[in-house]
Specification:
The structure is a homodimer.
Chain A (H helix, E strand, L loop, with lengths): L1 H8 L6 H10 E6 L4 E3 L7 E7 L2 E6 L5 E7 L4 E2 L2 H6 L6 E4 L3 E7 H10 L2 H26 L2 H11 L1 H4 L4 H8 L3 H12 L2
Chain A binds a DNA duplex through helix 9.
Chain lengths: 191, 191
DNA sequence: AAATAGCCTTAATATATCTTAAGGGTAAAT
DNA sequence: ATTTACCCTTAAGATATATTAAGGCTATTT
């Protein structure tokens, strides 16, 4: 739990009372590999902070094909924010790619924390701003770069993830088929 | 200026003192068509709230081709958030597509407002959460849908924009060439 | 140890999208 | 009123990426 407090304090210091309140509203949880913490059709109940392990958020299209929207590993937050705030059924899945440990905060608890610790508004504002910047960069890549360039960019920016993920998951994140990623990798290795 | 206050009050009520402070720190400005309010290589100095008109944020690739990252029209915010907060040179341009009126807040002013009106942390947290959700949906479309599906989705979600934008700008936003968009439109009109 | 399932690769063929080139239409600039 | 610049379209040929099918390799599972 200290890890979560430390995480928040990277943004702003907290006093003991604030730390205590956060601790009462957050719950640690172990997740097995392949376990889902969100499924399509259900409301996203939590904001989840990843202590150990790795998750993917994905959608399934009409043909049943999965598309990875996001990966989140250590010290990152994952949630379907739209579903969480609107309390509407999600169209997304969140699945553990590895055995993981997380800390979860439920919606009412998070709202309670926001009211009693206004600093958290600031902290989460910055957290989401950073996620937005990252996503906007990825979007720019997607509309302007070839699949090979996107793959190289992914390797450079997310080395820590790239080595832990099967290529098939990376392909889904890049928006290409595993077969085509395989071709890209061959072309690269042939210099 | 009242428009900005009203905008904030859609999220949370403000008292007179808060309104007054915001007004002293925000500046209205008229922008001509094609005028740039941010250019590559410069630090993004402002958060800009659009009263009237329409802007695009775009990047220029090595070949000199422009890629539209985002459109923002009435009651939306536009800024290169990364450049703004880090005070680092931007890689993006922001240009008025129509003659426009905006209200701008400089970095130091916004930070001053955040400190003196903690509510604004909450308000901007929600604003950016909504932008994030929108962008994540677009990202999902981009990795999972064909150009035709993306175009139809764009028309459905942004009718108000679609009719005001030249197709060449829409094509750039969708990540396709104008020629291919033209073909898509023909295929659609042939049912 | 065998069987199963997931992952990675290869290659042939098909489809989506880009490039280049050209022409016509319309709005802004002179 | 003419010119210029921008925008939209069409089409042929090129390239990027998807689809299908097959085979091999590992790590589980039986």
């Amino acid at each position: 739990m200290q890890r979560l407090i430390d995480h928040f304090q990277q943004y702003l210091p907290l006093n003991d009372e604030e730390k205590e309140l956060i601790i009462t509203r957050a719950r640690p949880r172990k997740i097995r590999r392949r376990q889902m913490i969100l499924q399509e059709g259900f409301v996203c109940k939590h904001y989840s902070f990843v202590l150990e392990g790795c998750f993917r958020m994905f959608a399934v299209d009409q043909k049943g094909v999965e598309h990875n929207v996001e990966f989140v590993a250590e010290n990152g937050w994952i949630s379907d924010i739209g579903s969480f705030h609107a309390q509407k059924p999600s169209q997304l899945f969140i699945e553990a790619i590895e055995a993981s440990e997380i800390i979860q905060i439920e919606q009412q608890d998070l709202y309670h924390l926001y009211i009693n610790i206004p600093k958290l508004d600031r902290i989460f504002k910055v957290i989401i701003e950073n996620k937005f910047i990252e996503l906007q960069n990825r979007m720019l890549q997607n509309i302007s770069a070839t699949a090979q360039q996107r793959y190289l960019h992914f390797l450079a920016q997310y080395q820590h993830l790239a080595t832990r993920l099967p290529n098939t998951q990376i392909a889904s994140y890049l928006g290409i088929t595993p077969e085509f990623l395989s071709k890209i990798r061959k072309d690269l290795s042939d210099h």
